[in-house]
Design brief:
Layout: E1 6-8, E2 11-13, H1 28-37, E3 40-49, E4 54-62, H2 71-89, E5 94-99, H3 112-115, E6 120-125, E7 130-139, E8 143-147, E9 153-157, E10 161-166
Parallel strand pairs: 4-5
Antiparallel strand pairs: 1-2, 3-4, 6-7, 6-10, 7-8, 8-9
Length: 169
């Protein structure tokens, strides 16, 4: 059994899911409003300045729990979002990668649970040492509540989640 946190090779294993508020991500609010106005949700935004180019990575999702995002959706949002970010950053020396969550998407930030309300996920619950699956009913800054296949409501605190991913079984 692994300890709660440790260093293994190149990887640091925390042993729990962290919640990082979208409000703490610089430019997220401005970009999320723009993306939502286009009919999508902004899942992730990372801006990494370097000496020559500012690297931006973003992820969008459908507003519908079972909705899909295609290449044309990404291209449309990319054009508008890149222009907005260049204005906010005051530079055109940018490189942006815009993606959608694939069927193998691992949830990295617990704040994503609220974005994906209505979608089926599975979480590794450390209290039972097993996967717990269900549809996300609600999520806040402490826990996610799932509706299991049996129709029961199951809340799991983020400190008890080792990992989480979409469930397409």
């Amino acid at each position: 059994m692994l300890p709660e946190a440790g260093f293994y090779g190149r990887w640091i294993i925390k042993g729990f899911m962290e919640y990082t508020s979208y409000k703490s991500i610089k430019y997220y609010d401005e970009c999320a409003a723009l993306v939502e106005g286009m009919g999508y949700k902004l899942v992730e935004l990372k801006i990494v300045p370097s000496k020559t180019t500012t690297k931006i990575s973003a992820m969008i999702a459908s507003t519908e729990p079972d909705g899909n995002i295609g290449v044309n959706d990404c291209a449309k949002v990319h054009r508008v979002l890149l222009t907005r970010l260049e204005a906010l950053l005051g530079t055109e020396d940018t490189m942006m990668e815009l993606t959608s969550p694939g069927i193998e998407h691992n949830i990295k930030n617990a704040a994503e649970f609220a974005v994906f309300t209505g979608r089926s996920v599975r979480v590794w619950d450390k209290t039972v040492n097993d996967w717990v699956g269900g549809k996300i009913i609600s999520a806040d800054d402490k826990q996610v509540t799932l509706e299991t296949e049996g129709g029961e409501s199951k809340s799991v605190s983020y400190e008890n989640i080792a990992k989480a991913k979409f469930n397409y079984n």
